[in-house]
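Course assignment 3, question 2. Fill in each field.
Student: A.L.
Task: Predict the tertiary structure for the chain below.
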Amino acid sequence: MSKRYKDREWLSEQIKAGRTLTSIARECGVNPSTIFRWTRKLGIIKPSENPLISYEELKRLYLDLELSFSQIANLLTYKWERKEPIKPSYVKWLTEKYGLIGKKKLNIEHDIVEYVDRKERSIEEVWKATIEHQKRRKEYEIVQKEATINISTQEAWILLVFMSDLHVGSRFTDYEALYKHVNLISETPNVYVFLLGDLHDNFVIPTMNRTWDSIITPKEQKYMCKDIATKLKGKVLVSLIGDHEMFSEYMANYNIVDDIVDILNCVFLGFGGLVYLRVNDIEYKIGIRHRYRYNSSLNLTHTVKRMLEREFDADIGVIAHGHVADIEQAPLRGRYRVFIRSGTYKPEDRYLQLKGFDGVVGTKVPCVLLSSKSKKAITFLDLETAIETLKALNLYYKIGD
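Answer field:
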Protein backbone atom coordinates (compact mmCIF):
# COMPACT_ATOMS: atom_id res chain seq x y z
CA MET A 1 0.00 0.00 0.00
CA SER A 2 1.51 3.29 -1.16
CA LYS A 3 1.19 6.38 1.02
CA ARG A 4 2.16 8.78 -1.76
CA TYR A 5 -1.27 10.43 -1.39
CA LYS A 6 0.11 12.10 1.75
CA ASP A 7 2.66 13.95 -0.38
CA ARG A 8 1.06 17.33 -1.17
CA GLU A 9 3.15 17.97 -4.29
CA TRP A 10 2.49 14.55 -5.79
CA LEU A 11 -1.23 14.57 -5.01
CA SER A 12 -1.65 18.10 -6.34
CA GLU A 13 -0.01 17.07 -9.66
CA GLN A 14 -2.44 14.13 -9.98
CA ILE A 15 -5.46 16.38 -9.43
CA LYS A 16 -4.22 19.00 -11.91
CA ALA A 17 -3.69 16.22 -14.45
CA GLY A 18 -7.44 15.54 -14.30
CA ARG A 19 -7.21 12.17 -12.60
CA THR A 20 -10.25 11.11 -10.62
CA LEU A 21 -10.02 10.39 -6.93
CA THR A 22 -11.07 6.81 -7.68
CA SER A 23 -8.09 6.15 -9.98
CA ILE A 24 -5.69 7.72 -7.48
CA ALA A 25 -7.17 5.62 -4.66
CA ARG A 26 -6.89 2.47 -6.77
CA GLU A 27 -3.18 3.17 -7.39
CA CYS A 28 -2.53 3.80 -3.71
CA GLY A 29 -4.63 0.85 -2.56
CA VAL A 30 -6.98 2.91 -0.39
CA ASN A 31 -10.61 3.99 -0.40
CA PRO A 32 -11.49 7.05 -2.51
CA SER A 33 -12.78 8.72 0.64
CA THR A 34 -9.21 8.60 2.00
CA ILE A 35 -7.90 10.50 -1.02
CA PHE A 36 -10.80 12.93 -0.67
CA ARG A 37 -9.94 13.54 2.98
CA TRP A 38 -6.24 14.18 2.23
CA THR A 39 -7.03 16.64 -0.59
CA ARG A 40 -8.95 18.63 2.00
CA LYS A 41 -6.25 18.17 4.69
CA LEU A 42 -3.39 19.27 2.43
CA GLY A 43 -5.42 22.22 1.10
CA ILE A 44 -5.21 21.04 -2.49
CA ILE A 45 -8.93 21.69 -3.09
CA LYS A 46 -11.52 23.68 -1.20
CA PRO A 47 -14.76 22.02 -0.05
CA SER A 48 -16.74 23.99 -2.62
CA GLU A 49 -14.42 22.76 -5.39
CA ASN A 50 -14.64 19.10 -4.52
CA PRO A 51 -14.12 17.20 -7.79
CA LEU A 52 -16.23 14.18 -6.93
CA ILE A 53 -16.67 13.68 -10.67
CA SER A 54 -14.51 14.73 -13.58
CA TYR A 55 -15.58 17.03 -16.38
CA GLU A 56 -15.68 14.20 -18.89
CA GLU A 57 -17.71 11.92 -16.64
CA LEU A 58 -20.19 14.67 -15.75
CA LYS A 59 -20.47 15.61 -19.41
CA ARG A 60 -21.27 11.97 -20.31
CA LEU A 61 -23.93 11.61 -17.60
CA TYR A 62 -25.55 15.02 -17.96
CA LEU A 63 -25.41 15.68 -21.71
CA ASP A 64 -25.09 12.29 -23.37
CA LEU A 65 -27.24 10.16 -21.06
CA GLU A 66 -29.43 13.14 -20.05
CA LEU A 67 -29.59 12.14 -16.39
CA SER A 68 -31.13 14.58 -13.93
CA PHE A 69 -29.24 16.28 -11.12
CA SER A 70 -30.96 13.94 -8.63
CA GLN A 71 -29.97 10.82 -10.57
CA ILE A 72 -26.35 11.94 -10.82
CA ALA A 73 -26.27 12.82 -7.12
CA ASN A 74 -27.57 9.34 -6.25
CA LEU A 75 -24.87 7.73 -8.42
CA LEU A 76 -22.14 9.75 -6.75
CA THR A 77 -23.47 8.95 -3.28
CA TYR A 78 -23.34 5.24 -4.08
CA LYS A 79 -19.95 5.45 -5.79
CA TRP A 80 -18.30 7.30 -2.93
CA GLU A 81 -20.08 5.31 -0.25
CA ARG A 82 -21.17 8.51 1.43
CA LYS A 83 -23.12 8.26 4.65
CA GLU A 84 -24.77 11.57 3.90
CA PRO A 85 -26.28 11.73 0.38
CA ILE A 86 -24.86 14.20 -2.11
CA LYS A 87 -27.37 16.92 -2.87
CA PRO A 88 -28.67 17.59 -6.40
CA SER A 89 -27.87 21.27 -5.83
CA TYR A 90 -24.16 20.34 -5.67
CA VAL A 91 -24.40 18.56 -9.03
CA LYS A 92 -26.13 21.59 -10.50
CA TRP A 93 -23.37 23.85 -9.16
CA LEU A 94 -20.72 21.57 -10.68
CA THR A 95 -22.40 21.57 -14.11
CA GLU A 96 -22.44 25.37 -13.97
CA LYS A 97 -18.77 25.45 -12.99
CA TYR A 98 -17.85 23.12 -15.87
CA GLY A 99 -19.93 25.21 -18.28
CA LEU A 100 -22.35 22.39 -19.11
CA ILE A 101 -25.54 24.30 -18.22
CA GLY A 102 -27.29 25.49 -21.37
CA LYS A 103 -25.80 22.79 -23.61
CA LYS A 104 -28.52 20.25 -22.82
CA LYS A 105 -31.11 19.88 -25.59
CA LEU A 106 -34.71 20.71 -24.68
CA ASN A 107 -37.62 18.99 -26.40
CA ILE A 108 -39.49 22.20 -27.27
CA GLU A 109 -40.90 22.57 -30.77
CA HIS A 110 -42.10 26.18 -30.45
CA ASP A 111 -40.69 29.36 -29.03
CA ILE A 112 -42.04 31.29 -26.05
CA VAL A 113 -43.96 33.78 -28.21
CA GLU A 114 -46.01 31.05 -29.84
CA TYR A 115 -46.70 29.54 -26.42
CA VAL A 116 -48.04 32.81 -24.98
CA ASP A 117 -50.24 33.42 -28.02
CA ARG A 118 -51.69 29.92 -27.80
CA LYS A 119 -52.36 30.34 -24.09
CA GLU A 120 -54.17 33.63 -24.67
CA ARG A 121 -56.31 32.06 -27.36
CA SER A 122 -57.14 29.15 -25.04
CA ILE A 123 -58.24 31.35 -22.15
CA GLU A 124 -60.57 33.28 -24.47
CA GLU A 125 -62.20 29.99 -25.39
CA VAL A 126 -62.54 29.15 -21.69
CA TRP A 127 -64.35 32.47 -21.09
CA LYS A 128 -66.77 31.83 -23.95
CA ALA A 129 -67.40 28.22 -22.89
CA THR A 130 -67.98 29.22 -19.25
CA ILE A 131 -70.51 31.93 -20.17
CA GLU A 132 -72.34 29.55 -22.48
CA HIS A 133 -72.34 26.79 -19.87
CA GLN A 134 -73.83 29.17 -17.30
CA LYS A 135 -76.66 30.03 -19.67
CA ARG A 136 -77.32 26.35 -20.36
CA ARG A 137 -77.40 25.48 -16.66
CA LYS A 138 -80.13 28.05 -16.04
CA GLU A 139 -82.27 26.24 -18.61
CA TYR A 140 -82.38 22.99 -16.63
CA GLU A 141 -82.11 24.45 -13.10
CA ILE A 142 -85.19 23.33 -11.14
CA VAL A 143 -84.99 25.87 -8.31
CA GLN A 144 -87.49 28.77 -8.39
CA LYS A 145 -87.93 31.96 -6.39
CA GLU A 146 -91.69 32.16 -6.91
CA ALA A 147 -94.36 29.68 -7.92
CA THR A 148 -98.08 29.72 -8.71
CA ILE A 149 -100.06 26.66 -7.66
CA ASN A 150 -103.74 26.14 -8.55
CA ILE A 151 -106.02 23.82 -6.57
CA SER A 152 -109.54 23.19 -7.83
CA THR A 153 -111.84 21.58 -5.31
CA GLN A 154 -115.53 21.03 -4.60
CA GLU A 155 -114.79 21.05 -0.87
CA ALA A 156 -115.17 24.14 1.29
CA TRP A 157 -111.81 23.77 3.01
CA ILE A 158 -108.32 22.40 2.35
CA LEU A 159 -105.55 21.83 4.87
CA LEU A 160 -101.91 22.90 4.54
CA VAL A 161 -99.41 20.98 6.65
CA PHE A 162 -95.97 22.50 7.25
CA MET A 163 -93.57 19.62 7.88
CA SER A 164 -89.91 20.23 8.61
CA ASP A 165 -86.94 18.96 10.56
CA LEU A 166 -87.87 15.29 10.36
CA HIS A 167 -84.26 14.34 11.11
CA VAL A 168 -84.62 10.79 9.87
CA GLY A 169 -81.67 8.83 11.23
CA SER A 170 -81.43 10.45 14.66
CA ARG A 171 -81.96 8.20 17.66
CA PHE A 172 -84.00 11.06 19.17
CA THR A 173 -86.57 11.24 16.35
CA ASP A 174 -90.19 10.24 17.08
CA TYR A 175 -90.50 7.63 14.30
CA GLU A 176 -93.85 6.37 15.55
CA ALA A 177 -95.42 9.84 15.18
CA LEU A 178 -93.69 10.43 11.84
CA TYR A 179 -94.89 7.12 10.39
CA LYS A 180 -98.43 7.75 11.66
CA HIS A 181 -98.56 11.29 10.25
CA VAL A 182 -97.20 10.35 6.82
CA ASN A 183 -99.85 7.64 6.44
CA LEU A 184 -102.61 9.88 7.83
CA ILE A 185 -101.78 12.63 5.34
CA SER A 186 -101.52 10.22 2.41
CA GLU A 187 -104.95 8.72 3.20
CA THR A 188 -106.84 12.00 3.80
CA PRO A 189 -108.23 13.97 0.85
CA ASN A 190 -107.68 17.74 0.57
CA VAL A 191 -104.53 17.70 2.71
CA TYR A 192 -101.40 19.23 1.18
CA VAL A 193 -97.83 19.45 2.48
CA PHE A 194 -94.98 21.95 2.44
CA LEU A 195 -91.67 20.15 3.10
CA LEU A 196 -89.36 22.75 4.62
CA GLY A 197 -86.03 20.91 4.88
CA ASP A 198 -83.81 18.92 7.26
CA LEU A 199 -85.45 15.68 6.23
CA HIS A 200 -82.60 13.58 7.59
CA ASP A 201 -79.72 14.00 10.05
CA ASN A 202 -77.12 13.25 7.36
CA PHE A 203 -73.98 13.79 9.44
CA VAL A 204 -71.57 13.00 6.61
CA ILE A 205 -69.01 15.72 7.33
CA PRO A 206 -66.19 13.98 9.29
CA THR A 207 -65.41 16.99 11.50
CA MET A 208 -68.96 17.00 12.89
CA ASN A 209 -68.45 13.82 14.91
CA ARG A 210 -72.18 13.41 15.54
CA THR A 211 -72.59 9.86 14.20
CA TRP A 212 -73.18 8.51 17.72
CA ASP A 213 -76.53 10.31 17.64
CA SER A 214 -77.60 8.30 14.57
CA ILE A 215 -79.65 5.12 14.70
CA ILE A 216 -79.19 4.30 10.99
CA THR A 217 -76.56 5.16 8.39
CA PRO A 218 -76.83 8.10 5.95
CA LYS A 219 -77.52 5.61 3.15
CA GLU A 220 -80.44 4.08 5.05
CA GLN A 221 -81.68 7.57 5.91
CA LYS A 222 -81.82 8.32 2.20
CA TYR A 223 -83.95 5.21 1.56
CA MET A 224 -86.40 6.20 4.32
CA CYS A 225 -86.71 9.77 3.00
CA LYS A 226 -87.45 8.44 -0.49
CA ASP A 227 -90.12 6.14 0.99
CA ILE A 228 -91.73 9.12 2.75
CA ALA A 229 -91.73 11.03 -0.56
CA THR A 230 -93.30 8.08 -2.36
CA LYS A 231 -96.10 7.86 0.21
CA LEU A 232 -96.73 11.61 0.02
CA LYS A 233 -96.67 11.82 -3.78
CA GLY A 234 -99.52 14.02 -4.98
CA LYS A 235 -99.70 15.69 -1.56
CA VAL A 236 -96.53 17.78 -1.45
CA LEU A 237 -96.86 21.16 -3.13
CA VAL A 238 -93.45 22.68 -2.32
CA SER A 239 -90.08 21.46 -1.09
CA LEU A 240 -87.14 23.37 0.39
CA ILE A 241 -83.57 22.39 1.19
CA GLY A 242 -82.31 22.65 4.76
CA ASP A 243 -78.98 22.75 6.55
CA HIS A 244 -78.67 18.99 6.92
CA GLU A 245 -79.25 18.30 3.22
CA MET A 246 -76.46 20.80 2.52
CA PHE A 247 -73.96 18.60 4.37
CA SER A 248 -73.96 16.27 1.34
CA GLU A 249 -73.82 19.26 -0.99
CA TYR A 250 -70.65 20.47 0.73
CA MET A 251 -69.04 17.04 0.59
CA ALA A 252 -70.13 15.69 -2.80
CA ASN A 253 -72.23 18.26 -4.68
CA TYR A 254 -75.31 16.08 -4.09
CA ASN A 255 -78.36 16.33 -1.84
CA ILE A 256 -81.40 14.14 -1.21
CA VAL A 257 -83.83 16.96 -2.14
CA ASP A 258 -82.90 16.54 -5.82
CA ASP A 259 -84.24 12.98 -5.68
CA ILE A 260 -87.23 13.94 -3.52
CA VAL A 261 -88.36 16.65 -5.96
CA ASP A 262 -88.10 14.17 -8.85
CA ILE A 263 -90.26 11.65 -6.99
CA LEU A 264 -92.85 14.23 -5.91
CA ASN A 265 -92.84 16.32 -9.10
CA CYS A 266 -93.35 19.36 -6.87
CA VAL A 267 -92.12 22.96 -6.81
CA PHE A 268 -88.58 23.42 -5.48
CA LEU A 269 -87.90 26.84 -3.95
CA GLY A 270 -84.34 26.20 -2.77
CA PHE A 271 -83.79 27.92 0.59
CA GLY A 272 -87.12 29.76 0.31
CA GLY A 273 -89.48 31.80 -1.82
CA LEU A 274 -93.03 33.01 -2.41
CA VAL A 275 -95.97 30.79 -3.34
CA TYR A 276 -99.17 32.12 -4.94
CA LEU A 277 -101.63 29.42 -3.90
CA ARG A 278 -104.98 29.73 -5.67
CA VAL A 279 -107.76 27.66 -4.15
CA ASN A 280 -110.50 27.95 -6.76
CA ASP A 281 -110.77 31.75 -7.10
CA ILE A 282 -109.18 32.61 -3.73
CA GLU A 283 -105.48 33.54 -3.71
CA TYR A 284 -103.28 33.04 -0.66
CA LYS A 285 -99.70 34.31 -0.67
CA ILE A 286 -97.32 32.14 1.37
CA GLY A 287 -93.73 33.18 2.07
CA ILE A 288 -91.47 30.37 3.27
CA ARG A 289 -87.85 29.85 4.22
CA HIS A 290 -85.95 27.12 5.99
CA ARG A 291 -84.21 29.67 8.21
CA TYR A 292 -83.97 33.43 8.58
CA ARG A 293 -82.39 36.18 10.67
CA TYR A 294 -83.80 38.09 13.67
CA ASN A 295 -84.55 35.05 15.86
CA SER A 296 -85.80 35.50 19.42
CA SER A 297 -86.26 32.86 22.11
CA LEU A 298 -88.84 35.13 23.78
CA ASN A 299 -90.87 35.81 20.64
CA LEU A 300 -90.67 32.78 18.36
CA THR A 301 -92.53 34.37 15.45
CA HIS A 302 -90.43 37.55 15.50
CA THR A 303 -88.21 36.27 12.67
CA VAL A 304 -91.30 35.49 10.55
CA LYS A 305 -92.62 39.02 10.97
CA ARG A 306 -89.30 40.50 9.90
CA MET A 307 -89.26 38.22 6.85
CA LEU A 308 -92.71 39.41 5.75
CA GLU A 309 -91.64 43.01 6.31
CA ARG A 310 -88.45 42.73 4.29
CA GLU A 311 -89.03 40.04 1.66
CA PHE A 312 -92.57 38.75 1.12
CA ASP A 313 -95.84 40.67 1.32
CA ALA A 314 -97.59 37.41 2.15
CA ASP A 315 -100.72 36.33 3.97
CA ILE A 316 -98.88 33.47 5.64
CA GLY A 317 -95.21 33.39 6.61
CA VAL A 318 -93.44 30.18 7.59
CA ILE A 319 -89.89 29.57 8.82
CA ALA A 320 -88.49 26.20 9.90
CA HIS A 321 -85.15 25.24 11.51
CA GLY A 322 -85.90 26.33 15.10
CA HIS A 323 -87.66 23.07 16.13
CA VAL A 324 -90.01 24.89 18.55
CA ALA A 325 -93.41 25.25 16.85
CA ASP A 326 -95.55 28.34 17.23
CA ILE A 327 -98.43 30.09 15.40
CA GLU A 328 -99.58 33.65 15.76
CA GLN A 329 -102.18 35.73 13.95
CA ALA A 330 -101.27 39.39 14.23
CA PRO A 331 -101.55 42.65 12.27
CA LEU A 332 -98.73 43.76 10.00
CA ARG A 333 -98.90 46.67 7.56
CA GLY A 334 -102.61 47.18 7.85
CA ARG A 335 -103.98 43.63 7.94
CA TYR A 336 -103.87 40.41 9.93
CA ARG A 337 -101.46 37.75 8.80
CA VAL A 338 -100.45 34.27 9.95
CA PHE A 339 -96.93 33.79 11.33
CA ILE A 340 -95.69 30.21 11.72
CA ARG A 341 -92.58 28.53 13.13
CA SER A 342 -92.67 24.88 12.17
CA GLY A 343 -91.75 22.16 14.65
CA THR A 344 -89.73 18.96 14.52
CA TYR A 345 -90.05 15.19 14.79
CA LYS A 346 -86.92 15.21 16.95
CA PRO A 347 -88.45 16.15 20.33
CA GLU A 348 -85.49 15.06 22.43
CA ASP A 349 -83.16 17.53 20.80
CA ARG A 350 -80.07 17.78 23.00
CA TYR A 351 -78.91 20.93 21.22
CA LEU A 352 -82.16 22.74 22.15
CA GLN A 353 -81.96 21.34 25.69
CA LEU A 354 -78.51 22.86 25.93
CA LYS A 355 -79.99 26.21 24.91
CA GLY A 356 -82.70 26.03 27.57
CA PHE A 357 -85.68 24.61 25.68
CA ASP A 358 -85.76 21.39 27.69
CA GLY A 359 -89.29 20.06 28.21
CA VAL A 360 -91.15 22.40 25.84
CA VAL A 361 -90.45 20.70 22.52
CA GLY A 362 -93.10 18.23 21.42
CA THR A 363 -94.04 16.68 18.11
CA LYS A 364 -96.05 19.65 16.90
CA VAL A 365 -96.93 20.10 13.22
CA PRO A 366 -98.39 23.53 12.37
CA CYS A 367 -101.36 23.40 9.99
CA VAL A 368 -103.63 25.97 8.38
CA LEU A 369 -107.15 25.39 7.12
CA LEU A 370 -107.86 27.54 4.04
CA SER A 371 -111.35 28.27 2.77
CA SER A 372 -112.16 27.83 -0.91
CA LYS A 373 -115.25 30.08 -0.58
CA SER A 374 -113.76 33.22 0.97
CA LYS A 375 -110.36 34.32 2.24
CA LYS A 376 -110.26 32.67 5.68
CA ALA A 377 -107.59 30.80 7.63
CA ILE A 378 -107.83 28.66 10.77
CA THR A 379 -104.58 27.61 12.47
CA PHE A 380 -103.61 24.48 14.43
CA LEU A 381 -100.50 23.11 16.13
CA ASP A 382 -101.81 19.54 16.19
CA LEU A 383 -102.10 17.56 12.94
CA GLU A 384 -104.73 15.09 14.14
CA THR A 385 -107.00 17.87 15.43
CA ALA A 386 -106.58 19.80 12.18
CA ILE A 387 -107.57 16.77 10.06
CA GLU A 388 -110.60 16.03 12.25
CA THR A 389 -111.71 19.65 11.89
CA LEU A 390 -111.18 19.53 8.12
CA LYS A 391 -113.43 16.49 7.80
CA ALA A 392 -116.08 17.97 10.08
CA LEU A 393 -116.18 21.33 8.28
CA ASN A 394 -116.36 19.80 4.81
CA LEU A 395 -119.13 17.43 5.96
CA TYR A 396 -121.00 20.34 7.54
CA TYR A 397 -120.88 22.38 4.29
CA LYS A 398 -121.99 19.38 2.25
CA ILE A 399 -124.99 18.83 4.51
CA GLY A 400 -125.72 22.55 4.49
CA ASP A 401 -125.68 22.60 0.67
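Instructor remarks: The chain is about 40% helix and 15% strand. Residues 144-400 form a domain with the Purple Acid Phosphatase; chain A, domain 2 fold (CATH 3.60.21.10).
Grade: pending
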